[in-house]
Amino acid sequence: MSKQKAVLSDEQVKARRGRSVALAVTLAVLVAMFYVITIVKLGPGIMDRPM
Amino acid sequence: MTMVEQSQGLHEDAVDLGGRGSVSDYIALLKPRVMSLVVFTAAVGLVMAPGNQHPFLSFISILCIAIGGGASGALNMWWDADIDAVMSRTKKRPIPAGKITRAEAFAFGMVLSFGSVLTLGLVANWFAAALLAFTIFFYVVIYTMWLKRSTPQNIVIGGAAGALPPMVGWAAVTGDVSLVSIALFMITFTWTPPHFWALALVKNGDYQDAGVPMLPVVAGETATRHQIVLYSLLLLPVGMSPYLLGFATEVFGVGSAVLGLIFLGYAVRVWRIREGEPAKKAAMSLFKFSLFYLMLIFAGLLAENVMGLV
């Protein structure tokens, strides 16, 4: 089956770029947030686990 | 979705591919002004709760409650896009304005709902997470999808969703429900009907056009004015309940009594002035003061707890 690509308008390209940046920032913040949450919740016990 | 392949033969306009929404449109979906109220009241519940929670975990808990509240807003806009398009107050919202599709709003709301509930469960406890999930469910399913279009008591019962955040904040620290958190719930719950009905009196035409059975549309403006006064009377002792139940000082007791009496004064003014532009002005004054009232009541509780007065 042949396919046809939708062409984005300038407005859509600009909006997508903004959303992409926001998503990247959100993901980076989530990574940092869960890292700190882990440290705070486990505290010194983070190193105290069966190997 | 912005770059998709469409099957040949389909009309290009048959499917709205979306992708026009900017970051600010998505933020608008979260109803930031409602979110600020959620953050504030939830923070008060969290600060008042006994127990030691790490400040960072408290911050993340509040963030989760805020995002959960925002997600409810997005799902509300997803469902109510048809009503929003008719009403002057809401027709510029992202979906009726054509910036975000309903599917995009639904996906956004669902992702944030699950994300906020799961994160709160991991950070605080699963009781608080369940309470947040219930809050979202209550606002979206019980209020938005069911009550809003079917009964003039919509905002009375639906107000429970807006009143739950302080209970979630409290539960994030303690993992339970207490008399104090129920009292905080009751304040916002009792405050909601006169607050919204004051707005409904001003925007009565809008609700009529949209076919939403708000009290002024169904029971008439006079009956609504009676109800506003009754709920304002009830709000007076409920607003003082933190003092009456012994978890706020006399200063709060006197302050909340004065604020409650001023609230009642505005409500009586709405009841007395019933015709034309002065009537709308009186209703709008009550609506504005009600926001100020709730903010001051919760700010008072927050201040007394932060200063260690109780």
Automatic annotation (TrEMBL), chain A:
Transmembrane residue ranges: 21-42
Keywords for this protein: Membrane, Transmembrane, Transmembrane helix
Transmembrane among keywords: yes
Protein name: CoxF protein
From TrEMBL, chain B:
Any one biological process term the GO annotation gives: heme O biosynthetic process
Residues annotated as transmembrane: 34-50, 56-79, 100-120, 126-147, 154-173, 179-202, 228-245, 251-271, 283-303
Assigned EC number: 2.5.1.141
Localization of this protein: Cell membrane
Major subcellular location class: membrane
Pfam family of the protein (one): UbiA
UniProt GO cellular component terms: plasma membrane
Pathway it works in: Porphyrin-containing compound metabolism; heme O biosynthesis; heme O from protoheme: step 1/1
Catalytic activity field: heme b + (2E,6E)-farnesyl diphosphate + H2O = Fe(II)-heme o + diphosphate
Keyword Membrane: yes
InterPro entries, A to Z: Protohaem_IX_farnesylTrfase, UbiA_prenyltransferase, UbiA_prenylTrfase_CS, UbiA_sf
Keywords: Cell membrane, Heme biosynthesis, Membrane, Transferase, Transmembrane, Transmembrane helix
A GO molecular-function annotation: protoheme IX farnesyltransferase activity
Keyword match Cell membrane: yes
Membrane topology label: Multi-pass membrane protein
Taxonomic superkingdom: Bacteria
Reported function: Converts heme B (protoheme IX) to heme O by substitution of the vinyl group on carbon 2 of heme B porphyrin ring with a hydroxyethyl farnesyl side group.
Miscellaneous comment as given in the Swiss-Prot or TrEMBL entry: Carbon 2 of the heme B porphyrin ring is defined according to the Fischer nomenclature.
Recorded family membership: Belongs to the UbiA prenyltransferase family. Protoheme IX farnesyltransferase subfamily.
Name of protein: Protoheme IX farnesyltransferase
Source species: Pseudovibrio axinellae
